[in-house]
Amino acid sequence: MDPSDHEESSVLYSPGREPKIVPNINANVRKETRWTFWLITTGISTTFGAAVPTGYNIGVINAPAKYIKSWCNDTIYETYGTVFTEGNLETFWSAVVSIFLIGGVIGSLGGAWVADRLGRKRSFLLCGFLLFFGGVCFQFCQTLNSVELLMIGRFVVGLAAGLTTSTVPMYLTELAPLGLRGALGVFCSMGVTGGVVVGQIISLEEVFGTDDHWQFALSFYVILVVMFFVPYPWLPESPKYLFVIRRRHDEAVYELKRVAGSKVRDEYVREQIDAMRRECTPENDEEMYGDGNSTREKPKERSIWSVLTDPTLLLPLVLVCALQGGQQLSGINAVFFYSVSIFESVGLSSTDAKFANLGAGCLNLFVAFFSPILMAKFNRRFLALVSCAMCALFLFCLTFIVFFIDDVEWFSYASIVAILLYILFYQIGLGPIPYFIGSELFEVGPRPAAMAMGSLASWGCNFIVAMLFTTLQGAWGAFVFLPFACTCVALTVLLKIYLPETRGKHISQIVPLVAKGFSSKPLLVP
Fold this sequence. Notes:
It comes from Anopheles minimus. With about 525 residues, the protein is mainly alpha-helical. The protein has helices at about 25-30, 35-60, 65-80, 85-115, 120-140, 145-175, 180-185, 185-200, 215-220, 220-230, 240-245, 250-260, 265-280, 280-290, 305-310, 315-330, 330-345, 350-370, 370-375, 380-405, 410-430, 435-440, 445-475, 480-500, 505-510, and strands spanning about 10, 20-25. Strand 1 (about 10) and strand 2 form a beta hairpin. It is globular, with a radius of gyration of 24 Å. It starts with 8 loop residues before the first strand and ends in a 16-residue tail after the last helix.
């Protein structure tokens, strides 16, 4: 049984005010923990309409690279009369690949503003529009002989990807009842993971990864965007956004009842309204209830700068950025990149090694399918610690094995085991948890800014790995995995000391645990 079941009250911390004792609502909330039509519909629509296309654009670009580079070289010569050397062409291709990551960084930075100004639901719509526009650019770039259109498409889908990872998990967790918050929160992670695999499959030479059809490979995901945006007009807006940020209380209650389903109890609705009131910032409290001189009700958002300079938000912000950045610096992309050569070392042909690498990606996706169950049954802290620690262990093992792989015959097979176990433990914690942990550590006001900073850390670290990994691999060889292993060790230590348990707890119980910066004692229940 969750320890929070025995708590009768918790402390709501507000800077500059006396702590407020609030009742524990977990027991009653759990009675309403069920999958309703609109929860499922929204989860599926956002996952296949935005998260899967985001992963798709990560995985689709590698297989047809030689054909796209050849087309770029010929098109630039025909358009500008410029002849690229092999080095120039590789540099240009690096720009084509990395501009997607730059778009992700910029999209993440804009996520906070978009989520507050447009709302969670319309943020999702903007993601879909950008993805559709990028797909159109991909489809017609070859027909129009326009390398610029290819670059624009990569940048635009990068913007959509950054916006997706910073807003979609927040949208889903704000819709979810307390008991399903983690299960619904991992939908975005599952979508990105699945999208990478789908992109790898569609871009195979046996499908669309050919000289004549690569543009279809790049734009294929648009079918998903169009299909899964069909229910968009009927999707609910986040009740918490409407209540806390926009102050449209009647609309918030209506959406709350709609999301909760026709069998929702009035008691549950009242408890949720009380909970949303407690999530209001102190400034919002004064505006909502009056301070003796005013009873205004105006929107209240938190800018990124106000969140960065708020000492009570320092620790949760560090945790969110460390988890999202650490997710990329944990070496998952490096392992997949290196695994092809490892599969070849055990006697597989180049083609078979690529299919084996695709199989490893399918294992990653297979484990991801169990994420909702894991999030519902196990504590976040436990999963994150086990995942980080075991990833560090198997990265150290992989370093040792690859270094001596030519000296010990069976080390080739041991390296495959190490890779598969690394992927397994990565996906139970480091893969899904960083996507939604910000929604569990921050109240509604600062949440968009925090999620944007976390997404920025993720895409920024992804860019760093993409730029440096090949160089480091050539210089360090097997020891290229050591920085990733050390990152996992550092992350394990940070989480061991400072990450509070969030499963089954309302935000009013979590905020006080991390409100004192690095002096916080998050393992001590208030």
